Amino acid sequence: MTPLIENTFRSVYIVDGTRTPFLKAQGKPGPFTASDLALQASRDLLARQPFDARELDEVILGCTIPSPDEANIARILALRLGCSEDIPAYTVQRNCASGMQALDSAYKDIRTGRHDLVLTGGTEAMSHAPLLFQAKMVLWLSRWYGAKTTMAKLKLLPQLRPQYFAPVIALLRGLRDPIIGESMGGTAENLAYDFHITRKSMDEFALQSHQRVGVGQATHLNEEIASLFDTQGNFYQADDGVRHDSSMEKLAKLKPYFDKIYGMVTPGNSSQVSDGAATLLLASEAAVKRYELPVMAKIVDCHWAGVSPSSMGLGPVHATIPMLQRQGLGMDDIDYWEINEAFAAQVIACIRAFAQDDYCQQHFGGLAEAFGTLDPEKLNVDGGAIALGHPVGASGARIVLHLAHVLKQRGGKRGVASICIGGGQGGAMLIERVNSI
């Protein structure tokens, strides 16, 4: 660890990163748990480094719904990777932005001199989200296990009702805001209404996502993906939720899912429930020089913001504008953007909010007019979560990793990755392409 000079902060670099294919949930537990996914991504990443896992300073991982056997999943990953037992690890949870929060936590640790080399990222196996007992069943079971005699247990049996066995589906509860009692899809419907977004616009955006991912898969997307293999010898080499035959006609046939009478948000213009992981190596300048590491990008800044839970999809706007203002930058200074595609309506609403005078004046007191126009040709140039999937703990890390690749492949200098967060928050990270230091 390099001593920190008082009142100075160090530069933090993205050295390398990889992710697994994102596998669409198929209505049953998938072949990999969240720690399995993170392990396979991280093994591939570390295998091409000039150091081994025992030389890491820390492991930080984002995950929202780990399985019952994955408490502090970052520690499990560290030990399964072969890190020394004295290397600390911790897990963070900020809903959809858990992976980005892990990056920010590692960024701050390196920036302030606490560490030099951190493995970080996010993972999620949404298909493994648990089924829970409802409260009445829990109370009955507590009495059952508390009964001291066989007769006492027998007396409890008539009190057991068939309806007690109906499970609480943790995944559905997690996608519903407990404060406002509304699903994440319902909040997307709110934005569609507020910003006058049509069903046709949503479906066009969704179709574009599939088309862009399709082109990327045929050319360069596999460069950032580590193949998965399960215990049965099956290999998974590409994101499997992409619909190469998608069309406006097919999307138009899908019925609204969240507001079945008046709604416009459908499974076709929403992100997919998926399993996947993305891990990155962050390093200080000292670590880069010590191990002669390549450098993909520099993390310049990160910002978090809160918004109303009922319009949580606007979180990227509220996180991005203050961050760019702090850096003295405007929309035109950003070469490429990644905004996680939770819903087509949500991303479209963000684009419109950035460019709307009234919205910016109302929510950002120092602005006399709109912050600026986001060029659609600079946004999600290889598609996004509508086509790839949105394993919530991993997505925040995936968009940062992919943005670093985009800047390298297309010769851009600066990029912003941003994500909306269930519960009414937004996160944004600003990175710059770096060839060497």
Keywords:
437 residues; alpha+beta; Peroxisomal Thiolase, Chain A, domain 1; ten-stranded mixed β-sheet; single chain; two-stranded antiparallel ribbon; 15 helices
Q: How would you briefly describe this protein structure?
A:
With 437 residues, the chain is α+β, with helices and mostly antiparallel strands. It has helices at residues 34-47, 73-81, 98-111, 135-146, 150-156, 170-174, 184-194, 199-219, 248-252, 285-291, 315-326, 344-354, 357-363, 385-388, 392-410, and strands at 12-19, 23-24, 58-62, 89-92, 117-125, 131-132, 168-169, 176-177, 182-183, 228-229, 235-236, 274-284, 297-306, 336-339, 414-421, 425-433. The longest helix has 21 residues, at 199-219.
Description:
The protein is of the alpha+beta class. The chain has a domain at 179-220 and 299-433: Thiolase/Chalcone synthase (Peroxisomal Thiolase, Chain A, domain 1), CATH 3.40.47. Helices cover 36% and strands 19% of the residues. It is built from 15 helices and 16 strands. The strands form four sheets. Strands 1, 2, 3, 4, 5, 12, 13, 14, 15 and 16 form a ten-stranded mixed β-sheet that branches. It has a two-stranded antiparallel ribbon with strand order 6-7. The model has no long low-confidence stretch (mean pLDDT 95).
Task: Provide the helix percentage.
Answer: 25-40%
Q: Helical element count?
A: 15
Distance between the termini: 19 Å
CATH superfamily of the domain at 179-220 and 299-433: Thiolase/Chalcone synthase
What CATH architecture of the domain at 179-220 and 299-433 would you give?
3-Layer(aba) Sandwich
* Rg, alpha carbons: 23 Å
Beta-strand residue fraction: 15-25%
Q: Which quaternary structure do these chains form?
A: single chain
Give the class-level CATH name of the domain at 179-220 and 299-433.
Alpha Beta
